[in-house]
TrEMBL record:
This protein's name: Porphobilinogen deaminase, chloroplastic
Task performed by this protein: Tetrapolymerization of the monopyrrole PBG into the hydroxymethylbilane pre-uroporphyrinogen in several discrete steps.
A molecular function GO annotation: hydroxymethylbilane synthase activity
Matching InterPro entries: HemC, Porphobilin_deaminase_cofac_BS, Porphobilin_deaminase_N, Porphobilinogen_deaminase_C, Porphobilinogen_deaminase_C_sf
């Protein structure tokens, strides 16, 4: 059939040499195709060396990708495509957006499902915003690593004024944070604060639609998302004390997974980890629920000492108690400072203060 077709098209009949060449060429193509298919299947079946678990918000993903880049930079075997896989896990906190966190169970709602995936070995490490991590860790997990901390300050965002002080009486500030709410109302009792949840993009959209006149967001998140062009003003630490562990990323793994612990320990930034530990001990000492507005910030000053500032408040801002400490920038000293500061505020507030907050709805 092939010879007849070739003759009809004006080609001379093939010689036996041509037929042999074509046969070899055809076999060679088949071998190449089979090799490519085998390589693709191998790539497909290849098990990732590390599976990173994260929430699916743009900010959470930015933090997971930052972690992946740092792992690749420190460990050459992780550079190969597919060596690190990012696994998105939807948490309860991401699913329920129309209620305040305090009403649906508090901070652990952003980490619970990720912790479960870690314990079930569906992922190898978990990347968290440290301010979402409860002061206790689930049995079987450790959090030995904090990446270098971003800017801890809050950003003020408004389309109509340049500061909180310029907002007219009765203006609504959108914020899901009781810490921000109490500090705003303490300084500006003429303003209103409404629950305002969702990721950064959602909140900015609500602001542009005029649902609120202003909002506050963590500057760290805006920097990681390359969205600082939206910032109207940056609030100083004196104006707005940050959330415990604001601006810090934590990486957790299973307790006895030495390989993963070794991988992530290589990324640990000790100064950040010590500061975060200090702040979290303060929070734990106060035993604050998600209904208790608590703020705290520890940092190394220019002389190398640790400075810690802590705050507890009533949600309506009528009562705000603050304290500060300064001591050696060393774990044991910082833990003692944090406990002492927490116990002081606990004593000054009195049990009735915390009982009152616990009953608020």
């Amino acid at each position: 059939m092939e010879i007849t077709l070739r003759s009809a098209l004006g080609f001379p009949p093939p010689t036996s040499k041509t037929l042999i060449h074509n046969h070899h060429h055809s076999r060679k193509l088949m071998v190449v195709k089979a090799t490519v298919a085998a390589e693709q299947q191998t790539q497909k079946n290849k098990v990732s060396l590390i599976k990173i678990g994260t929430r699916g918000s743009p900010l959470a993903l930015a933090q997971a990708y930052q972690t992946r880049e740092k792992l690749m930079a420190s460990h050459p075997e992780l550079v190969e495509e597919g060596a690190i896989e990012i696994v998105i896990i939807k948490t309860t906190g991401d699913k329920i957006l129309d209620q305040p966190l305090a009403d649906i169970g508090g901070k652990g709602l952003f980490t619970k499902e990720i912790d479960e995936a870690l314990l079930n070995s569906d992922i190898d490490i978990a990347v968290h915003s440290m301010k979402d991590v409860p002061t206790y860790l689930p049995d079987g997990t450790i959090l030995p690593c904090n990446l270098p901390r971003e800017d801890v300050r809050d950003a003020f965002i408004s389309l109509s004024v340049s500061s909180l002080a310029e907002l007219p009486a009765g203006s609504v500030v959108g914020s899901a944070s009781l810490r921000r709410q109490s500090q705003i109302l303490h300084k500006y009792p003429q303003l209103k604060v409404e629950n305002f949840r969702g990721n950064v993009q959602t909140r900015l959209k609500k602001l542009s639609e005029g649902k609120v006149q202003a909002t506050l967001l963590a500057l760290a998140g805006l920097k990681r998302l390359d969205m600082t062009n939206n910032v109207t003003a940056i609030l100083s630490i004196e104006e707005m004390l940050p959330a415990i562990a604001q601006g810090a990323i934590g990486i957790a793994c299973r307790t006895y997974d030495e390989k993963m612990a070794s991988y992530i320990a290589s990324l640990d930034h000790e100064e950040t980890r010590l500061a975060i530990t200090c702040e979290r001990v303060f929070l734990e000492t106060l035993d604050g629920s998600c209904r208790t507005p608590i703020a705290g910030y520890a940092y190394r000053d220019t002389e190398g000492y640790c400075v810690f500032r802590g705050l507890v408040a009533s949600p309506d801002g009528t009562k705000v108690l603050e304290t500060s400490r300064r001591g050696l920038f060393a774990l044991e000293d910082m833990v003692l400072m944090a406990k002492d500061a927490g116990n002081e505020l606990k004593s000054r507030a009195g049990p009735a203060f915390f009982d009152m907050i616990a009953t608020l709805k």
